[in-house]
Please model this.
Amino acid sequence: MINIKGDVREFQRQLDSIQRKVIPVAVPRAMNDTVKQINTQVRRQMADDLGIQQKHFKRRLKVYRASRKNWEAKNWVGTKILIPVSAVFKSGRKGIAYAKARGLVDANSLFEATMPTGHSGIFRRKGQSRLPIQEVSIDLSDAAIKAVSKWGPKIVRERFRRILAGKLTELLRRQR
Model:
């Protein structure tokens, strides 16, 4: 038989102190790490689906981090993610043909041009006349929404608890 004597109130104070100090730090950190993993998987999925390198749309996906005061971490995907075709594919006829073959561009009268400002790109005419012209872009919002709906719940369900446990362990070790 083990006999434990001690002040239960002191032990309760220590537990309350840990709860006040550690949990408000650990939860936002775990949320931020989880959202970062979601963002990574979404970028990879979109690159696989579209056959485009991640560097072309990496900055179009934003992560809003949680803090001690605001326990809300967001992985934001723009409603319209447009990338100029010239930024993704090679210049000239080969790039235009490749974009058409991938089904990423729906246009017949595409042409490559360099603007007076020095910006070069792939354009299409808005009407029958010479001007105005419009730069051809790829809309990635559907692929982004599909990737977020696939990976978001899965990563939160599988990894958040494990990340939170790791953050709590790390902070409790520092408390000693």
Observations:
- DSSP finds four helices and seven strands in the chain.
- Residues 31 and 167 are 10 Å apart (CA to CA).
